[in-house]
Design a protein that fits this description.
The chain is α/β, with parallel strands linked by helices. The protein has one domain: 5'-nuclease (Rossmann fold, 3-Layer(aba) Sandwich). It is built from five helices and five strands, in the order βααβαβααββ. It has a five-stranded parallel beta sheet with strand order 3-2-1-4-5. Helix 3 runs antiparallel to helix 5 and helix 4 crosses helix 5. The radius of gyration is 14 Å and the shape is globular.
């Protein structure tokens, strides 16, 4: 199955801080773990602003560590454009739009995602 990870989940998973059922799901080799280019952009911006402490080569290690990068497509932009303004974070809005467009299950700790995605498409992880 394909899972789109919210940025906070990518960061926690990279630190080995996700366990239990979700940890098993993330570790299962049959699952494809997708990271939005929106998340990559968010990480780079926060790292360069000094708001996020990750190694300089963090984004370069995503694919070698088993993550598949999900590019931004015009379809995602159009879906994002149609979303109600329940969530103000542009990075999260794009992740939501990608999950909707591609019909991927999304793993997040952000409850607002539940207001956009059908219940079967959201896996909520408390951090």
């Amino acid at each position: 199955m394909k899972y789109l990870l919210d940025t906070c989940i990518v960061l926690r998973a990279s630190e080995g801080k996700i366990s239990g059922r979700l940890g098993s799901l993330i570790a299962a080799p049959e699952n494809t773990l997708l990271v939005s280019m929106s998340s990559v952009w968010e990480i780079v911006i926060k790292q360069s602003a000094g708001k996020l402490d990750v190694p300089d080569n963090f984004i370069d290690r995503l694919e070698p560590n088993g993550y598949t990068l999900l590019p931004l497509r015009m379809e995602h932009m159009r879906t994002c454009q149609q979303l109600p303004m329940l969530h103000k974070d542009p990075f999260d809005r794009m992740i939501i739009a990608q999950a909707l467009s591609e019909k991927y299950r999304c793993i997040t700790s952000d409850r607002i995602f539940q207001q956009y995605l059908p219940p079967e498409q959201v896996i909520l992880e408390a951090l």
